[in-house]
Design goal:
This protein is an alpha/beta fold. The protein contains 5 helices and 9 strands. It has a 5-stranded mixed beta sheet. A hairpin with a 5-residue loop joins β4 and β5. The chain is elongated, with a radius of gyration of 27 Å. The N and C termini lie far apart (70 Å). Residues 1-5 have low confidence and may be disordered.
Length: 171
Amino acid sequence: MSEPVASAIKEVEPRIRVLLKKNPRMPATVIAERIHWSSSPAWLRENVARIRPEYAPADPADRISYEPEDQIQCDSAFPAVKIPCGTGPEQVFPVLAMVCSHSRFIMARMIPSRTTGDLLAGMWDLLSGLGAVPGRLIWDNEVGIGRRNHHAAGVAAVPGVLASRMVQVKP
């Protein structure tokens, strides 16, 4: 029985890795020229594609990771739908949306207004349905919650009751 033949890629892989380390986006055609590749171009492209992710820079959108129950992003939105209100004119009501940063689980509740009481009641209702409280509740300068790291009246007591922190960030 004969010995298995070593793959041509195994012989040049260290040189491919050196080139990718210097320039992770170097095209396979340029790598082929620099390593004097004379075999199948498709075979080289396939193997460069297999190796390249080890040298590619991190995607900025993928650098942040969250632990379960770490934080929830809170915000309000205004859907385009107008709702009839008794005999008065139709109105657009705000929707409180909360997204768990770890799981990306989305919760939403239509609330009567963006006042502090309605925002806190909506937040309390959504959290009680979730069955857990995050370490941080992230808000982006919602008027009813507060502005510039100053909480609106009545908001400062809520994180203490929930054993959580209310964090305000720039929009």
